[in-house]
Amino acid sequence: MGGGKCFSGVKNVSLLRLAALTAFFCLSCGLAGAGAGSPLSGRVVVIDPGHGGDDPGALGCHGIVEKDVAMEIARKVALAFREAGAQVVLTRDGDLDPEGRRVEIRDLPRRVELANRCRAHLFLSIHLNHFSEPDEYGAQVFYQCGSVEGRKLAEAIQAELNRHLVDVGRQALGGDFYVCRNARMPAVIVEVGFLSHEEESRRLTDPEYQERAARAILEGVARYLQGNREEVR
Ligand SMILES: [Zn+2]
Questions:
Q1: pLDDT tens profile 94-152
Q2: What are the residues whose beta carbons fall under 8 Å from the beta carbon of 233, sequence distance 6 or more?
Q3: Hey, which of 9, 106, 149, 228 would disulfide with 186, CB 3.0 to 4.6 Å?
């Protein structure tokens, strides 16, 4: 996420211009649900690759740029969720938004409004971490303080990332984040690993590792949805 800075401070927003096209985009994103028995079947999931356009996000070891790795992982997450029967909406494709325009800096309102317009069930923002201490590594999931569902979702994803990637005892953390605060559905920020860590940054660009991360996120979400189903019974 670039030292935790990228989600704060966005206040003034003009959202109306997005409305019409977002509605079209939501209608066109529906996929016939594979995996009808899957807890993901028929769920609308917005996957948000962090940063983009002129906003590179964190700059890591080996010249790795957060926006590029976030996009690569988000594509794999999107594919995994589609295969599980979810209807996936990506908030950007490379440096372009769903309207085909270059992604603007400070466009968090656009992303969260897209999710709200789509009546998404879940919002997953994909980022890579960066810290001044180069020893920090491991995935970290954040949720909005006070959101019970956000916390449950974050904890489920954190557990699966710890299990499938690396477990350094990280727990899901609460905070105040623009997208999580304004999304009308459970929303989390998944920092898949640290670009400031020499070895982990290299792993994060490995397609096989990215695939594992995507599967872990999918399993976490499935577990969260399953848990809620059981609570209802
Ligand atoms: Zn970021």
A1: 999 999 999 999 999 999 999 999 999 999 999 999 999 999 999 999 999 999 999 99
A2: none
A3: 149
